[in-house]
Specification:
The protein is mainly alpha-helical and 226 residues long. Helices cover 64% and strands 3% of the residues. The radius of gyration is 19 Å and the shape is globular. Bound molecules: protoporphyrin IX containing FE (2 copies). One protoporphyrin IX containing FE is lined by residues 12, 16, 19-20, 23, 53, 95, 99, 103, 106, 157, 160-161, 164, 175-176, 178-179.
């Protein structure tokens, strides 16, 4: 084993637990027409998180960056999955190959779900903020795709949570504590720069997080409205 190392910065952790709450709310509110306005608002905020996570993937600390967990080849992903199923701990500090793949899938699905929600319209109760800018065919496609994508999000999230519980209880890796405290086993490696708990990352994350969430809400929620 090895001493814990700072891995997940505050913005990864805060964002993670906020999207957990947001997606749970979306699954409940999505089928209730009385909650459609708040559903759209929370969906736009989730879209803002997607924008943040993409930018943070290039500007955040080492383990948040996409370069530290490039999309794996099918062979690498399969080998990583086999190791997990065999309960062999992968000595990677940040995302494993298969974990990284799940991150790409979740970000893409959430982004597409938010976009199709914003382009949806039923011409009676609801017209998304992007609907006035796209053709009737695109609105129709988006309105049909949104429930399908939101179910794909749900299925991916269930697999993600089962995988985390497997690591936590069957493999005795303290991943959940890691997503709370930011600390994970270092496997003998040094914390790469920029340090995830540094003031610079805290401040940079604050600016990017606020601009992405506030900007997305300002543009789609207030300026374009619905
Ligand atoms: C709506 C539900 C959820 C979504 C959308 C979600 C999404 C994500 C994403 C995108 C990441 C990657 C973090 C990043 O690099 O930004 C992640 C990591 C993680 N999630 Fe979740 N998550 C969900 C629910 C949960 C729950 C309920 C738990 C706890 C039981 C959990 C535990 C974790 C842990 C421990 C990691 C870090 C894994 C590692 O150390 O490699 N997640 N999740
Ligand atoms: C990533 C974020 C989002 C998630 C996870 C999500 C999830 C869902 C779910 C689960 C449903 C129910 C589907 C069904 O009937 O089977 C739904 C419906 C809907 N969503 Fe979203 N949604 C998101 C974002 C948005 C956004 C941004 C908008 C609009 C701005 C939106 C507008 C709608 C509308 C209009 C419906 C249909 C409501 C109804 O017929 O009662 N969603 N969504």
């Amino acid at each position: 084993m090895s001493l814990p190392q700072p891995v997940w910065d505050l913005w990864i952790r805060l964002g993670h637990w906020l999207i957990v709450a947001g997606i749970m709310f979306q699954q409940i509110s999505g089928e209730n027409i009385d909650l459609v306005n708040i559903h759209a608002t929370v969906g736009i905020l989730l879209g803002g998180w997607v924008l943040f996570r993409v930018i943070w993937g290039f500007t955040g600390p080492y383990h948040a960056r996409f370069a530290s967990f490039p999309p794996p080849s099918p062979k690498t992903a399969a080998a990583s999955l086999r190791r997990v199923l065999n309960k062999e701990t992968e000595e990677t500090v940040g995302h494993s190959a298969i974990g990284g793949l799940a991150v790409y899938l979740l970000i893409t699905l959430l982004g597409l779900t938010a976009l199709t929600g914003m382009a949806s319209s039923d011409d009676i109760f609801f017209s998304g903020p992007l609907a006035p800018f796209v053709s009737a065919n695109i609105i129709d496609l988006a309105s049909r795709a949104h429930p399908i994508l939101s179910k794909a999000v749900l299925v991916t999230v269930i697999i993600h949570v089962l995988a985390v519980l497997w690591h936590q209880f069957a493999m005795r890796e303290r991943l959940i504590q890691g997503m709370i405290t930011g600390l994970k086993p270092s496997f003998g490696s040094q914390t790469p720069a920029p340090h995830p708990f540094s003031k610079m990352i805290l401040l940079r994350g604050f600016v990017i997080f606020s601009l992405c969430i506030g900007g997305t809400y300002g543009l789609f929620g207030i300026y374009l409205g619905w």
